[in-house]
C-alpha cells in the first residue's frame, strides 16, 4: 500500500476546494484541536445530576443545542476517560457528529436493531440508550479483536439488550429483518484529520480506491436486511464523495430506496449532486455533510434511507 503523508492542512484537501463552502475557514478549522464532547448516558445517569457533579470538579458542560439535553461540550476536561463518571458509565466521550448519527436514526423502543459495523461501540450504546434498553440489538463487527473494546463499552454503559456478532457486514445473513439499521462503514476517515499533535496525520492512501466497493456491498446488504417501512442510516467520517454520495447513488440505482430528510437542529450542508464528472440522483441533496468549520467536530456524512 502506498502511503503518502501530507504535511500541511493547507494542501491536504485542495481537491475539495470547489465542494467545501468557505474553504479557507475550513482550512483554518483544521489547525485547532478538537473540543471534547460528551454524551450523558440516560441508561445510568440523569443530565442535571452529571452536570452538577462535574461543575463541582470545575468542569463546565455546555449544551451543544437546545434540542438535546444529553450532548455537551466540556471545558477544562482534557482527559474525560480519567473521571469517576466515565468508569461509572454516566458519560461517554464522543465526537459530536458521531453522537448525531444515533440521533438521526432514532430507533424506537421495542424494535429490532442492527449495527453492522459496531466496534468500539459508542454508537451502539447510544442506540441502546435511545431504545431505553428494550427491544433487541445485534452489534456486528468483522474483527474479533475489536469485540473486546466493543464489549467493554456496552458493559460500562449498562447496555442489556444486545448481542455481538462477527460477520462480514456485506454478507450478514438474510435470515432476519430489522426495523432500524446503522451502517457506520469503514472509510478513509478524512474528517478526523486536524493538525498534529492531537489530530491524526492525513495520508493519501491507495487503499481508498477499494473502500467504495466494500461500502456499496455493505449498504446494499443493509437495505436488504430492512423490514418494510424500516429505516437505515449510512454514515462515514470522510469528505470523499466516492465514499458518500456515489455509494448512496449506487443503492438508489439498485433498489427501490427512499432518501428520508435529516432533521437534527444543527448546521449541515446538503449532499452533492455531482462530482468528478459523475451526476447523482437529485434526491442526494437530502443527505447531510458536516464540516468542522460549521460544527467544530469530526467531518461526517449521513444518508437516512427508508424501505417502502
Ligand atoms: C467507523 S468504524 C465503526 C465505529 C462504531 N460504529 C462506533 O461508533 O464505535 C468501522 C468498523 O467497521 C469494522 N469493519 C471493517 N470492515 C468490516 C466488514 N467488512 N464487516 C463488518 N465490520 C467491518 C471495523 O472493525 C470498524 O470497527
H/I helix tally: 10
Q: What string gives the helices and strands in order? A: EHHEHEEHEHEHEHEEEHEHEEEEEHE
Gross morphology? globular
What binds here, in terms of ligands, is: S-adenosylmethionine
Report the helical percentage.
Answer: 25-40%
Report the radius of gyration as a whole number of Å: 19 Å
Q: Number of DSSP strands?
A: 17
What layout of secondary structure does this protein have?
Layout: E1 3-5, H1 9-12, H2 23-29, E2 36-40, H3 47-56, E3 60-63, E4 71-75, H4 84-87, E5 91-93, H5 96-105, E6 112-115, H6 122-130, E7 136-140, H7 147-156, E8 162-165, E9 178-184, E10 203-205, H8 211-224, E11 226-236, H9 245-254, E12 257-260, E13 269-270, E14 274-275, E15 278-279, E16 288-290, H10 292-295, E17 300-307
Parallel strand pairs: 6-7, 6-9, 7-8, 9-11
Antiparallel strand pairs: 1-10, 2-4, 2-5, 3-4, 11-17, 12-17, 13-16, 14-15, 16-17
This protein binds S-adenosylmethionine.
